[in-house]
Amino acid sequence: MERYTSLSSHPNDVELGHTEAKTRDLRISPPGLRRASSLSRRKQERTRRIAAGAGVAVVLLLLVWSFGGGRRDERREEFGPPASLVRVGARTGTVPNATTLLTPAAPARSYFDALRPDLRYLTIDTWSGWSGQFLTVLSQLYLAHLTQRVAIIPSFRDADHYGDSMITPDLLMDFEKFRRERGALFVYWDDVKPLDRVHATTKRDEIGCYMGNNAFEGGRSFDEHNLEQTIWRVPRPGGWLQNTVEALTLFDFDEEDRLKRLHKFADKEKRDIPRNMLDSQVLCYSNLWDLAHAGAQANGWAWYEGFRGHQKEDGELKDMLAISARGTHPEWWAVGQYIDFAPGIWEIALNATYHSLRLDYVPKNLITIHLRRGDFKSWCDAGENCTPTVDRYVEKLEPLLDLSPPATKILVTTDEQDDADFLGAIDALGWYRVDHRALGTMQILEERYGDAARWADAVVDQAILSLGAHFVGTSGSQVSLLTELRVAAWNGGETRLVERPS
Ligand SMILES: *[C@@H]1O[C@H](CO)[C@@H](O)[C@H](O)[C@H]1NC(C)=O
Ligand SMILES: *[C@@H]1O[C@H](CO)[C@@H](O)[C@H](O)[C@H]1NC(C)=O
């Protein structure tokens, strides 16, 4: 299993034929540093530009231009979660981590030996691809925060998409920065009990998990840590609101009621209760993907609508409520928005962005578009022509262009690599398309991430898409969903989703 270690950074080896771009350092610095260095870089660039001007007229023009702020306003100097949001922080230097949140025996042959008796823990298994697993961990971290538990984050595994490679999410996202800045309490299963894929070196431990908030229960990584998972569909109080965050929180804290329900269920089903369920130390759910507050569910919202657009789609009250107050995706507003991409991902994503736009900076006014095809091509009743045409994206883009200055660039990512007509239609619109084949992105990812390259590949486009001041995505795509949330939270942008033909 690979852990995120920061990659040594190289001077940009780009082929822009442009000395400035060749020497530009792509390292992503902490936000404060980033601003200082970009200011001095901007000053240097301006000086150089003026010196290069042949005549007085050119110099004057440049001066008027830079004092007018034209160029300065166009450049974007910071990426990821805005620095101003980062303010909570734990006591400097004492952020609890695996050393303090577990016993000295950790990682242990049995997980019970790794857990501190005075702490409560919350865990889940993973499900779905990168985006689904990441979203599930956000829900886990949110519920752990509300219920004052330490999250034990699962190892990520998805043989369907990424081969046999297993990772922890900090390989691709900056979880350590999140821990440091927000004081979130979490460890990884690796910290608790080592990966033991053939069950040779550790003890087989039982772990009983209550049903989560939706029907997806096929966990993928517990067995790799030699955990025998059983799922317990014990009814929670709360009636038809039993899958809300509030119901899950009360279910946790009302231990007496929970254990009464558990014993009744076990008697009825004639099952033996796993040790972890007999008290409140380790709570496990089968899945927590896509949490919602009672306020959202009381209005008829359900998890399967989570794929739809989140802004200005239906209902007047929904329009009036701030997006963060609608009760859907509370885990994003409480947790997800603070988790940045890892520096190594930013490096590759920014490089691809510069090359695709043929610029040496990221413009502030940029609209990103995600055209998701892949298995969506045959995923409808008709079984073919199931993905929207490029025209549908143009329609959704138009109102966003009205919000943007003239000459705003459109940057497109798509998983389509072969359909020449489709790709030609994008290029004919004058949109800029990230062509990873031409950029050789996979080769770089393989050099740096080895077996985990395909996991990293899933994340690079998300970092690129997050640079949009506004965004158009594809309905039903978790990448589009995450990008909507990022563009809304990080850039204050508007987003639209193109519905797929039914
Ligand atoms: C936890 O933090 C302490 C203090 O900063 C550090 O010495 C230790 O190595 C950290 N443990 C892990 C597992 O990162
Ligand atoms: C940046 O892009 C260029 C052109 O595709 C490529 O040759 C180079 O390896 C890339 N570097 C990184 C760090 O992604």
From TrEMBL:
Basic and acidic residues composition bias: residue spans? 12-27
Q: Enumerate the residue ranges of region (Disordered).
A: 1-44
Biased composition range(s): Polar residues: 1-11
Regions annotated as coiled coil: none
UniProt keyword annotations, A-Z: Membrane, Transmembrane, Transmembrane helix
Per the record, the domain of life is Eukaryota
The membrane spanning regions, by residue number, are 50-68
Q: What is this protein called?
A: GDP-fucose protein O-fucosyltransferase-domain-containing protein
The species is: Rhodotorula diobovata
